[in-house]
Automatic annotation (TrEMBL):
Protein name as annotated: DUF2953 domain-containing protein
Keywords: Membrane, Transmembrane, Transmembrane helix
Transmembrane segments: 6-23
Organism: Paenibacillus marchantiophytorum
């Protein structure tokens, strides 16, 4: 009985430790001249579970062909490439995604309220957005710099109000006078406790179940998304 009690105690402590641990995520985008890089990284269970998705190539092929991207799944622990795919983001795919999003919203009770409640539990641990801009003329560069500051302020003011800031943001627009240049680097890192993430998932299922056909629609969307990922090449 003593060993059973100790085993139950260890399991209970382990479950509590997992629930109070963080799921950490990081979004990074940079553009230097014509080179674009985008990466998304997720970590959980004290770093034991890690997923990194990288898009090292983003090419605009025109309005008919859309955007060509090359994506990679990287194993950081072994420093090796696990998978690589190429795909085209076309106008038809964007329209299809928009229609699916509308269907999901219609079949989930108060989806916007759920998103606000979930984002309120997200802590922003790093926010960096540095842009360098120059148009070849000093006065025009100054005007462009001010315009970019205004765009950044509006976008960040809209997005940050939903999450909790725990780190000082690093936001800057650096004018490059008398030269033509545009480069930007954006990094957002956040975390949410496993307990809150699990609770958010349960709440989402409950909200979908309260709408007729909601769970069925969610399952269809998830299966369709997985099939698109597997067939991408």
């Amino acid at each position: 009985m003593l060993w059973i009690g100790l085993a139950l105690l260890v399991v209970t402590v382990a479950i509590i430790a997992v629930l109070v641990s963080f799921i950490r995520g990081e979004f990074y985008f940079s553009r230097v001249k014509d080179n674009d890089t985008l990466s998304v990284e997720m970590r959980a269970l004290f770093g034991l579970v890690r997923y990194r998705y990288v898009i090292p190539i983003i090419q605009f092929k025109g309005f008919t062909q859309g955007i060509m991207i090359k994506s990679e799944v990287v194993n950081d622990k072994k420093a090796e490439l696990k998978d690589a795919k190429k795909d085209h983001i076309t106008k038809d795919k964007v329209i299809a995604f928009y229609k699916e999003a509308k269907v999901v919203l219609m079949h989930t009770l108060n989806m916007y309220e759920w998103m606000k409640m979930t984002l309120a539990k997200v802590e922003c641990t790093e926010l960096k957005w540095i842009t360098r801009v120059g148009v070849g003329d000093a006065p025009e560069t100054a005007i462009t710099t001010g315009a970019i500051w205004g765009i950044k302020s509006s976008l960040l003011g809209f997005g940050i109000r939903y999450v909790k800031l725990v780190a000082k943001p690093r936001i800057d627009v650096i004018p490059q006078y008398n030269q033509k240049q545009f480069s930007t680097e954006f990094r957002f890192a956040g975390r949410i406790r496993v307990w809150f993430a699990v609770l958010a998932g349960i709440r989402l299922l409950v909200r979908a179940a309260k709408v007729k056909g909601g769970l069925r629609i969610w399952i269809q969307i998830v299966l369709k998304s997985r099939s698109r990922v597997k067939t991408a090449s």
